[in-house]
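User: Here's a protein and a ligand (zinc ion). What would the complex look like?
Assistant: Let me lay out the input and then the predicted complex.
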Amino acid sequence: MIPRETIDTIFNTARIDEVVGDFVNLKRRGVNFLGLCPFHNEKTPSFTVSPAKGIYKCFGCGRGGNVVNFVMEHEQTDYVGAMKYLAKKYNIEIVEKERAPEEIEQDNERESLMIVCNFAQKFFSDNLETEQGKAIGLSYLEERGFSPETIQKFQLGYAPESYKALMNAALHAGYKLKYLIQAGLVSMRVKEGEEAPKEPVPELSYDRFAGRVIFPIHNVSGRVIAFGGRTLKKDKNVAKYVNSPETPLYHKSNVLYGINLARRAITAEDNCFLVEGYADVISMHQSGLENTVASSGTSLTIEQVRLIRRYTPNVTILYDGDEAGLKASERGLTIALKEGMNVKLVTLPPEDDPDTFARKHSPEELKRYLKANAVDFIVFRTRTLAKLSEGDPVKRAELIRDIINVIAHIPEMITRSLYIRECSRLLHVEEPVLWNELRKSRRKLFDEAPSTVVTQRPAQSIQQNLPENSDAFSCEPQEKELIRVLVKYGEEEATFIGELEPGQEEPPLFKMKIADYIIQHLKADNVNFENMLCQRIYNECCRMFEQGEKITEDSFLRHGDEDMSTFSMSLANDNYVESDWSKRSIGIKTERDHLGLTTEKAVYALKSRRVEIMTRDISEQIRQPLNDEELGNMIEHKRRLDSARLMLKKKLGRVI
Ligand code: ZN
């Protein structure tokens, strides 16, 4: 953890024009500097640096932030990495704070696991040079068309055909068996009925990857955290691929194969190709398409989508044309759409996968093909299903609902309406009909709680109508929005609308500091946060508020608590309303122009979400067997919640 004082020194020393100037040719324009944006391709400069404000902003691609954001984005590093970069540039010494023993131990453990993985990777790579390795491993890799440079770049290797080879080499070199097991390189097998020894013993331990070609899996910064091993045996009983199990270093759903080598190209190309297997990634890279990663067998997860989105909002999936494959990836694609990404699809000829296709064609041909054949995912889906349902009105109606359900997940209204128009054209259905379906579908997504007061025990069947989507029970989005407003505008004063008193024609207006307004409101209703980080940031805001410190975005971006600073950075960078509006410049005022409303909306949205969830809980409880008194209390409680909900709804209606 970098101490606060050092962070302050770094911020006070680093000059944005100097830091950016290392990479961008900046020309002075009045008080600012102007240059060509390093994050997107442009011919006329729209990248502005303001030394006075300490920020940069590109009016082409919308990227912007402070000096640390710039280093993070440009060097593709995290917050701490950016701090270290700046410290080095300005010769500032970072003395890391002392940490709790368990923190150190945890870090040491992770570090030990990384060191063991690093040793294993070297061991596997070296084994490509042995006689057995050359005959089996290397010849396989060469057969696949991987060049020596590629083999080196991806650190491919071979695990010898012996179940103790890696373990013995590692133990001999002084590594602990415990870490080999924890890193998933070695596993201990205990016979059925026998008790496992307290400490791991070599006699019962075996290499996981023996006799396999090895594909190391790296984290974003390029350190080995896991392995995939492919067997070369024809035996049907041997699994073709064996992967590392989940370890403290490796969580399959968070990792994209090849991201360490792809991230710069992804930013530069502003697109990410997504393929399925290790070999696909490697062949694409070898053909010059370095912006390629794989989700390694899992369907795309939300963590993986967010990882890609750090570098680009555009993802193109290469897929080999079979319907089952598409069906399987649909869930992941819907997640990507939900996260506001643009999803395209390229269908390869049925006899090919990305690996074989890349090998058959020159890099130029490959690039041309991908460019010419990338189709928007929703358009593609609409077309296929339109064909499938030709002449079958029932199926057609079903298909329309399917497509609309996918579109309903897209966060941006403008994008949704573009798709509705496109689908109307492709399906020959009137737009209003589709809009109507979309409204229903979105209502289901945000599932309104049943509004009738339950006065008697309802029939059992109502239980089946409960929403299955567990997301519907979360108030995280509302919490994050509120924290964003609090952190970003806490110190600013805004105009709020007061309660309408009897006899008054219009509600009174009053001015108040935003932090004051939010904290008062949450305290009054004892609101706590579900998301622990939101809670911590909120607590910190309360503390700052009480001690008269200024709550500013900067104070959190610079916060010594890395989690908090990273989180507030993500809030600041997310495509929230303001950036969307200014990007489109369609004449809508920015949120700064009506801060009061923005704040009220955030407060009421969270409160009403809370009430909604409580209402649902209580409706659930009312259905359980209760005695009359309990039931009476419950119903009374529910009635109070209902009126609170109505009140909040009215307020929200006023501010939206
Ligand atoms: Zn730009």
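Summary: The mean pLDDT is 81.
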